Amino acid sequence: MHETTNNRHRRRRSFLRKKKNQTDFTLVAIIVILIIFGIIMIYSSSYYYSINMFNDSSHLLKRQLMWGVLGIVVMLVVSRIDFHIFNRFALLMYILSIGFLVLVLFVGIEVNGSRRWLGVGQLRFQPSEFAKLTIIIVVSYVASKMVNHLDKYRLMFFILFLIAIPSALVGLKNMSTAIVVFAVGTAILFVAVPKVYKLLLITVVPGVVLGGIGIAFAGYRLDRVKIWLEGPWSDPLNLGYQTIQSLYAIGTGGLFGTGLGQSMQKRGFIPEAHNDIIFSIVCEELGLVGAIVLIILFVLLIWRCMVIASNCSDLNSLLIVVGVMAQIGLQVIINVAVVTNSIPATGMTLPFISYGGSSLLFLMIEMGMVLGIARKSKISKAG
User: Is residue 316 domain-resident?
Assistant: First the structure.
């Protein structure tokens, strides 16, 4: 009887060990579905734009398809790498991130009036995307290493200092992305040191509000805030134009949409509809039902990350998953809010859906890290 019990325990431990090292296929399936959804909508929303700009209706489709396949490969490769390896390069990544963000201020490539890219020719990337990944890795590593060695308040201010530098540099070019970078770092800090939440609220919230007001009311950002407060119809041919066309697209879609590929707004009314404003085309062609399905996919993605986070084997891995969750959630909220005119217009990609190679690639690196953490976690006990 004793031997039988021991054998049963050994078999159970062996089973759990095997499951522990398996890929989280539920998360992979959600990610792949989102990428396919995005590729389909990019083709639909960029069809006329690609004909006019490149004389090839599938030009952007082919590029995004290439990035999508590359992103999936990178995600699977990163998932097989122990994420602790990234900690060895945390300092280097942080220095490089600051360097890139400073460099883009002086020699950045200008696209549509915004100087946010570095690179040569078609090979370019946004340093702000690299900053998001860096903040997740650096803050998670520092918080997990120092949480038991530094006074909680000293640790909080030190990490806030680490977060503030890249956030401020990103904010010089893109306020919404700066908010995401800062909020992601703060979310990680809050989970690592929950006892200082009152001090966080007292010190961070007023600073962020005052800083945000200062940046928002500088230059073109003031115009965006004013047009949002006054309503886009107060300047329908200039500052309010894109918002109005976006709302027309959403209203036209109704419950079930006009049909895939049948959008009128993408035919020159919404400039570059395949970028940040793509959610409006989803609403127009697939209707409220299609928009809800897309949002449900994001909710499922966040849910699966929460399951992984709740089964992490150490604080470092937990904080990384929290950072990725915070980034995706914030970007979805900001993007949808801008498209529906719930907040002032600003540039923010919709994860997995908006056109863009570098943003998708960095996001897939993050998802690869989450998958790698899932393989090392106690996920088998969570189902």
Answer: yes
- Whether 292 is in a domain gets the answer yes
Query: Rounded to whole angstroms, how far apart are CA atoms 383 and 364?
Result: 24
The pLDDT score that the predictor gives to residue 21 is 64
Give me the pLDDT at residue 236, please: 79
pLDDT in tens, 133-159: 999 999 999 998 887 776 777 888 888
Query: Residue 89 corresponds to which tokens in the numbers above?
Result: 């390069």
On the 0-12 / 13-18 / 19+ scale of CB atoms within 10 A, 296 is exposed
Residue 41 DSSP code: H
Residue 42 belongs to some domain of the structure: no
Q: What is the pTM of this model?
A: 0.88
Q: Is 67 within the bounds of a domain?
A: no
Residue 321 is given by DSSP the state H
CA 218 to chain centroid: 26
Query: Edge-to-edge, what's the strand order for the sheet holding 109-111?
Result: 109-111, 114-120, 123-125
CA distance 97 to 381: 38
Answer yes or no: are the C-beta atoms of 183 and 163 closer than 8 Å.
Answer: no
Cα three-residue angle 272-348-137, rounded to 5 degrees: 135
- Token digits of residue 371: 């998958």
How does DSSP classify residue 288?
H
Residue numbers in the chain where pLDDT is lower than 50: 1-3, 13-18, 380-383
Residue found under tokens 């959403």? 250
How far apart are the C-alpha atoms of 369 and 284, rounded to whole Å? 35
Give the range of the structural domain holding residue 279, as residue numbers without chain letter. Answer: 85-351
Give the span between the Cα atoms of 28 and 78, in whole angstroms. Answer: 13
State how many domains the chain has: 1
Amino acid at 173: K
Asked whether 274 and 357 are in contact (CB, 8 A), the reply is no
